[in-house]
Design a protein that fits this description.
Layout lengths: L1 H22 L6 H34 L25
Length: about 90
Amino acid sequence: MLVNLLLGLATFTAIYFFGDKMMLAFTKDPEVIRIGKEYLLIMGGFFIVHGGLNVFNGALRGSWRYPVPNGSKHHLSLADTHSPRLLV
């Protein structure tokens, strides 16, 4: 989780300082570059959250346990780690 956070912050920092230069690879229009940099900053912030969710999802899959409703007689198999479904 710490590595994910550090990589996310490093990416966000690179976009903050060099986002306009990154956008120059696609266009020379200053207005498009300004909007593109703003878009990259917004998306970069969400990638930090998205990475944390991936870590949490991996931890759940690694535990081989998924929560099921109380009183349920259903179980989940290891084959259902990507799209769990209830088995009878």
